[in-house]
Amino acid sequence: MHPEIFQSPITEKEELLPGFFYLTIESPVLAKRSVPGQFVMVQVTNAKDPLLRRPFSLCSAADGKVGILFQVKGRGTAIMSGWEPGESINIMGPLGNGFGVHQSCPAAYLVAGGIGIAPLLFLSTFLVSADSGIAVKIFMGGRSAGEVSLLSRFDLSACDVFFATDDGSKGFHGLVTDLFDDYVTTDHGFLRGNSIIAGCGPLPMLQTLSRIASREESACQLSLEAHMACGVGACLGCVTATKQENGFSYKRTCVEGPVFSGSDIDWDHMQLPVCRSAALR
C-alpha cells in the first residue's frame, strides 16, 4: 500500500525518563495498515525551519492508535517534546518494510540498544498477541539502570527480559551483544533452527549481532537507522550497502528497508562510525 498523509490528534503524552517521550496518536487507518518494523515521517512544524520531516519507528499500532517513542536529541525532537494531548500533527506512513516472522518459528530473540527498542516493542506485542506460541526474549542494553527502566512503561509479562548496562547498575555489566553472546554460547535454552534474531540500535552493535547470528546459523533481521530527508526513496540520501554477486550495491533504507537481513548487508562498505538513535533529529 502507498503511504498516506494523516492529520492526527495526540491523545496522550508521557515523559518516561528525562528527555524520553512516548506519544500516543489517534490514527485508525495508519494503525490498521502498519506492521512491526515500519516507520512514519512526522512534520514537526508548519514553518520552514526545520523544514524536513523526522522519521520514527512505530512502537505500537493497535485499537486505532499508534505510538512513537523518541529521545530529545536536537531541534526537531525538542519541538516535539513540547506537544500536548489534543494537538493535531501531520504524519506520513506507514513507510518501509517490516519484520517477517514465520509461524513455525519457535523463538524470537530481540536485541536492542537504547532507543532502538522502539520497533522491537511493536514486534514483541505482535508476536505475543498473535498467540503463535513463539517464545519472545528481549535483550535490552543501555548506559545505566535509569535508561533501561523505560521498559517499565510497557507490559512485557509474556516475554523474558534481560538487561545489560554500561555501568553495571542493572543486569549484565557490559554491551548487550556480549550479554546475548554469552546467552547463546552457554546454551541457556537458545533455540536454533528456525528461530529468528531481530535487532535495532547502533550500527556496530548490529554488525556484531549479525556475526553472532551467522555463527549460529540463525536468521537475523536488523532494523537499520539512517538520516532521511524524504522517506519515500526519492532523494537517495539513506542508502545501505548490500551484497551482490560481483561486489555490492546500495539500497534505499526507507524503501527496501529499514529491515534488512543481516547476511545481506555489506558491512565492509557501511560507515560504522556514523551512528545515531532510532529517533532522528
Please describe what this structure looks like.
By secondary structure, the chain is an alpha/beta fold. The protein folds into 2 domains: 92 residues, Translation factors (Elongation Factor Tu (Ef-tu), domain 3, Beta Barrel), CATH 2.40.30; 163 residues, Nucleotide-binding domain of ferredoxin-NADP reductase (FNR) module (Rossmann fold), CATH 3.40.50. The protein is built from 6 helices and 15 strands. It has a 7-stranded mixed β-sheet with strand order 10-9-8-7-11-12-15, sandwiched between helices. A 6-stranded antiparallel beta barrel has the order 1-2-5-4-3-6. The protein has a two-stranded antiparallel ribbon with strand order 13-14. Helix 3 links the parallel strand 7 and strand 8. The longest helix has 14 residues. The protein is globular, with a radius of gyration of 18 Å.
Sheet with the most strands, sense and barrel status: 7 strands, mixed
CATH uppermost class of the largest domain: Alpha Beta
- Silhouette: globular
Task: Count all strands and give the number.
Answer: 15
Strand coverage percent: 25-35%
- CATH architecture label name of the largest domain: 3-Layer(aba) Sandwich
Q: Number of helical runs? A: 6
Say what the CATH topology of the largest domain is.
Answer: Rossmann fold
Residue share in helices? 10-25%
N-to-C order of helices and strands: EEHEEEHEEHEHEEHEHEEEE
Q: Which sequence of strands runs across the widest sheet?
A: 10-9-8-7-11-12-15
Q: How many domains is the backbone divided into?
A: 2
Structural class: alpha/beta
